Amino acid sequence: MILRVDFSHQADKFINRNRIPQEEIFSLIKATIQKFRGEDINVDIKKLNGKWEGFHRIRKGKLRIIAEFNFDDSAVFVEVIDWRGSAYKK
To answer: Cα(79)–Cα(90) distance, rounded to whole angstroms?
Structure first.
């Protein structure tokens, strides 16, 4: 199980500015990990490529979470949390 979840400055700022509970983000990450393990969980995940190589996108409504999952170090790094039109601009 993942022990550590780190947020970039942008992701942390977005959560605070939009008053999104961190528990909601944690539950989406937990569901994503369960999906990676092969459980039948309803979560929309996509492996990204191009300049986002190595990252995965989690989609919930208009919200996008771009995160890097490192199972060797038991860590998740959330790079971007944003609305759908702005999430992929780096």
So the answer is: 10
The DSSP 8-state label assigned to residue 50 in this structure reads G
Beta strands in the chain (DSSP E): 4-7, 44-47, 56-60, 63-70, 75-83
Give residue 14's domain range. 4-83
| Residue at 46 is within a domain | yes
pLDDT means per 10 residues, the chain with 90 residues, are: 86 95 93 93 94 95 95 92 84
Query: Per the domain annotation, does 58 fall within a domain?
Result: yes
Q: Residue 17 domain-assigned?
A: yes
Q: What is the CATH number of the domain that holds 18?
A: 3.30.2310.20
pTM to 2 decimals?
0.90
Q: Which two tokens stand for residue 53?
A: 């190589």
CA dist 46 and 48 (Å) reads 6
